[in-house]
């Protein structure tokens, strides 16, 4: 592949061999390449394909929910089946779509960004991915078991879990396997980042994406065993006579909520910190400026991780906790908004007086900043215990966390895909189709979810298959917009992802984005199968290779 004249190094100096030479190494082809994959790029691709498949499945469940809520009065599903859809939509989206997608980005980009030849534990990397596939199949197959899928909500609260059929046990088993996969992936990321950086690439010169994933990996190792403990106690309560959460035997169902949310709140940041990292890569590239306040961004990320462990019970203001407990968790939750605000300020400051252009990655990044800020403010409102008592388990909460997770995590994933896909595939995506994907996604998302704030303020509860006529208009509007949002993701698959997978498009240059900096832009497009076999020599900034 020809390299632009502006490049700083011959590809032979970067990857340790000349373009095309990696084909001579005899890397596997066909199904063996994927089943026995140990190359970080192939495993990253597998994670992304798996997560997008689960995203489409979870999206279909969401559209079934919205179809039922199109009008008041039962139309399609009975309330029990409706609650199965609610439960499985949440579990599939969190554990099957968002988390594996970010792990896919980590596999692809971290070795490229730090000048490593691969992930530290290549075979464990393969194992951690292939654990996900049977777990995802088991989770999805619960719909076909006697009694149907679990219908206890994605939080799987006791005592609801005691009333569920055998599919509850299979869901618990699937979550255990997914948790083991996450822990192995996290160990791999931590060892890779700490031990395999190119000489001269100090921690405080690392790209923000590597920093956010390093901190996320520590969070995962800390909290996934907590979830495992909670669901194991649920399992033994169901089958082995223990009464951890059963008041009849001296247990406490509120204890389950404490254990679950001690996992669940850091989990929220597990799903958003890598998104912060992606946006921190995209915004400087299209503003053609260095990231404003890099050091403060690193410390803010660490502060978010630490504070995420002291705010879990703001999900539980309605459980009757003492006033002092409410005050503690209320102020802790307000405090965590400060480092988050630092990040938003730094992104805006990076764009300030930059030479901005708005290709699709930048559109999704700016869209992320806007809608995530809305989600952050609604979260700050919910941190007030007195207000939360009124809004708890209403559609206001649904609107809040979808602004954080859909318009947060998902928009950042799209930004990262459009940003790095030319490097992965060697071809440019269609800018026209990318812009259509962004604008239709942005408008339909806001039309679908913003009215839910008003529904929640008016008192419409979550997880109900029916509602009074007074909520009909906003629900009809939300349903139509949700179907548009779902269909435009299929458009994205057909007109953006599929051509990229088939390498159809204009050839991508080594550095397709003028303002992009980092080691990943120092290798040819597409990135060779084996990269950085010889550790690169870096300039003082840690972002360029010197010959």
UniProtKB/TrEMBL annotation:
<feature type="transmembrane region" description="Helical">
    <location>
        <begin position="436"/>
        <end position="456"/>
    </location>
</feature>
<dbReference type="InterPro" id="IPR036927">
    <property type="entry name" value="Cyt_c_oxase-like_su1_sf"/>
</dbReference>
<dbReference type="InterPro" id="IPR023616">
    <property type="entry name" value="Cyt_c_oxase-like_su1_dom"/>
</dbReference>
<dbReference type="Pfam" id="PF00115">
    <property type="entry name" value="COX1"/>
</dbReference>
<keyword id="KW-1133">Transmembrane helix</keyword>
<dbReference type="InterPro" id="IPR000883">
    <property type="entry name" value="Cyt_C_Oxase_1"/>
</dbReference>
<dbReference type="GO" id="GO:0015990">
    <property type="term" value="P:electron transport coupled proton transport"/>
</dbReference>
<keyword id="KW-0472">Membrane</keyword>
<dbReference type="InterPro" id="IPR023615">
    <property type="entry name" value="Cyt_c_Oxase_su1_BS"/>
</dbReference>
<dbReference type="GO" id="GO:0006119">
    <property type="term" value="P:oxidative phosphorylation"/>
</dbReference>
<keyword id="KW-1278">Translocase</keyword>
<feature type="transmembrane region" description="Helical">
    <location>
        <begin position="170"/>
        <end position="196"/>
    </location>
</feature>
<dbReference type="GO" id="GO:0005886">
    <property type="term" value="C:plasma membrane"/>
</dbReference>
<dbReference type="InterPro" id="IPR033944">
    <property type="entry name" value="Cyt_c_oxase_su1_dom"/>
</dbReference>
<comment type="similarity">
    <text>Belongs to the heme-copper respiratory oxidase family.</text>
</comment>
<feature type="transmembrane region" description="Helical">
    <location>
        <begin position="399"/>
        <end position="420"/>
    </location>
</feature>
<feature type="transmembrane region" description="Helical">
    <location>
        <begin position="208"/>
        <end position="235"/>
    </location>
</feature>
<keyword id="KW-1003">Cell membrane</keyword>
<comment type="pathway">
    <text>Energy metabolism; oxidative phosphorylation.</text>
</comment>
<dbReference type="GO" id="GO:0022904">
    <property type="term" value="P:respiratory electron transport chain"/>
</dbReference>
<feature type="transmembrane region" description="Helical">
    <location>
        <begin position="129"/>
        <end position="150"/>
    </location>
</feature>
<dbReference type="GO" id="GO:0045277">
    <property type="term" value="C:respiratory chain complex IV"/>
</dbReference>
<keyword id="KW-0813">Transport</keyword>
<dbReference type="GO" id="GO:0004129">
    <property type="term" value="F:cytochrome-c oxidase activity"/>
</dbReference>
<feature type="domain" description="Cytochrome oxidase subunit I profile">
    <location>
        <begin position="34"/>
        <end position="539"/>
    </location>
</feature>
<keyword id="KW-0249">Electron transport</keyword>
<feature type="transmembrane region" description="Helical">
    <location>
        <begin position="327"/>
        <end position="349"/>
    </location>
</feature>
<feature type="transmembrane region" description="Helical">
    <location>
        <begin position="46"/>
        <end position="65"/>
    </location>
</feature>
<dbReference type="GO" id="GO:0046872">
    <property type="term" value="F:metal ion binding"/>
</dbReference>
<feature type="transmembrane region" description="Helical">
    <location>
        <begin position="255"/>
        <end position="279"/>
    </location>
</feature>
<feature type="transmembrane region" description="Helical">
    <location>
        <begin position="361"/>
        <end position="387"/>
    </location>
</feature>
<keyword id="KW-0812">Transmembrane</keyword>
<dbReference type="InterPro" id="IPR014241">
    <property type="entry name" value="Cyt_c_oxidase_su1_bac"/>
</dbReference>
<feature type="transmembrane region" description="Helical">
    <location>
        <begin position="85"/>
        <end position="108"/>
    </location>
</feature>
<feature type="transmembrane region" description="Helical">
    <location>
        <begin position="476"/>
        <end position="501"/>
    </location>
</feature>
<keyword id="KW-0349">Heme</keyword>
<dbReference type="GO" id="GO:0020037">
    <property type="term" value="F:heme binding"/>
</dbReference>
<keyword id="KW-0679">Respiratory chain</keyword>
<keyword id="KW-0479">Metal-binding</keyword>
<feature type="transmembrane region" description="Helical">
    <location>
        <begin position="291"/>
        <end position="315"/>
    </location>
</feature>
<comment type="function">
    <text>Cytochrome c oxidase is the component of the respiratory chain that catalyzes the reduction of oxygen to water. Subunits 1-3 form the functional core of the enzyme complex. CO I is the catalytic subunit of the enzyme. Electrons originating in cytochrome c are transferred via the copper A center of subunit 2 and heme A of subunit 1 to the bimetallic center formed by heme A3 and copper B.</text>
</comment>
<keyword id="KW-0186">Copper</keyword>
């Amino acid at each position: 592949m020809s390299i632009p004249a502006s490049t700083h190094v011959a590809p032979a100096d970067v990857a340790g061999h000349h373009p095309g030479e990696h084909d001579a190494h005899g890397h596997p082809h066909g199904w063996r390449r994927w089943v026995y994959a140990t190359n970080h790029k192939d495993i990253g691709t597998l994670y992304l394909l798996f997560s997008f498949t689960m995203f489409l499945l979870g999206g279909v469940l969401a559209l079934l929910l919205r179809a039922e809520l199109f009008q008041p009065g039962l139309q399609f599903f009975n309330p029990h089946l409706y609650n199965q859809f609610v439960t499985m939509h949440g579990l599939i989206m969190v554990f099957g779509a968002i988390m594996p997608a970010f792990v896919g980005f980590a596999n692809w980009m971290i070795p490229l960004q730090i000048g490593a030849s691969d992930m530290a534990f290549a075979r464990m990397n393969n194992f951690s991915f292939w654990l996900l596939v049977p777990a995802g199949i088991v989770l999805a197959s619960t719909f076909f078991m006697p009694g149907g899928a679990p219908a206890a909500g994605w939080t799987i609260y006791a005592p609801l879990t005691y009333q569920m059929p055998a599919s509850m046990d299979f869901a618990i088993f699937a979550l255990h396997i997914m948790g083991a996969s996450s822990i192995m992936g996290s160990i791999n990321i931590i060892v890779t980042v700490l031990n395999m950086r190119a000489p001269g690439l100090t921690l405080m010169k690392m790209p923000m994406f590597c920093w956010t994933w390093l901190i996320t990996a520590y969070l995962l190792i800390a909290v996934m065993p907590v979830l495992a403990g909670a669901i194991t106690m649920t399992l033994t309560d169901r089958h082995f006579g223990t009464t951890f959460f059963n008041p009849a035997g001296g247990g406490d169902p509120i204890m389950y909520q404490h254990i679950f949310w001690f996992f669940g709140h850091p989990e929220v940041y597990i799903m958003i910190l890598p998104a912060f990292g992606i946006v921190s890569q995209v915004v400087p590239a299209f503003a053609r400026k260095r990231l404003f306040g890099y050091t403060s961004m690193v410390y803010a990320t660490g502060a978010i991780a630490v504070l995420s462990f002291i705010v879990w019970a703001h999900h539980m203001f309605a459980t009757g906790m003492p006033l002092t407990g409410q005050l503690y968790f209320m102020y802790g939750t307000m405090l965590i908004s400060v480092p988050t605000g630092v990040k938003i300020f730094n992104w805006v400051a990076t764009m300030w007086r930059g030479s901005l252009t708005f290709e699709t990655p930048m559109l999704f990044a700016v869209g992320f900043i806007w809608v995530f800020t809305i989600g952050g403010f609604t979260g700050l409102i919910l941190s007030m215990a007195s207000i939360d008592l009124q809004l708890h388990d209403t559609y206001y909460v649904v609107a809040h966390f979808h602004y954080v997770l859909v318009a947060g995590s998902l928009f950042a994933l799209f930004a990262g895909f459009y940003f790095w896909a030319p490097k992965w595939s060697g071809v440019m995506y269609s800018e026209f189709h990318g812009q259509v994907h962004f604008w239709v996604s942005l408008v339909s998302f806001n039309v679908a979810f913003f009215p839910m704030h008003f529904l929640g303020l008016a008192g419409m509860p979550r997880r109900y298959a029916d509602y009074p006529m007074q909520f009909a208009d906003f629900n009809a509007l939300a349903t139509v917009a949700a179907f548009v949002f779902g269909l435009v993701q299929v458009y994205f698959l057909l007109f953006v992802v599929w051509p990229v997978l088939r390498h159809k498009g204009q050839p991508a240059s080594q550095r397709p984005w003028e303002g992009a900096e980092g080691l990943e832009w120092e290798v040819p497009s597409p990135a060779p199968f084996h990269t950085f076999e010889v550790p690169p020599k870096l300039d003082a900034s840690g972002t360029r290779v010197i010959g």
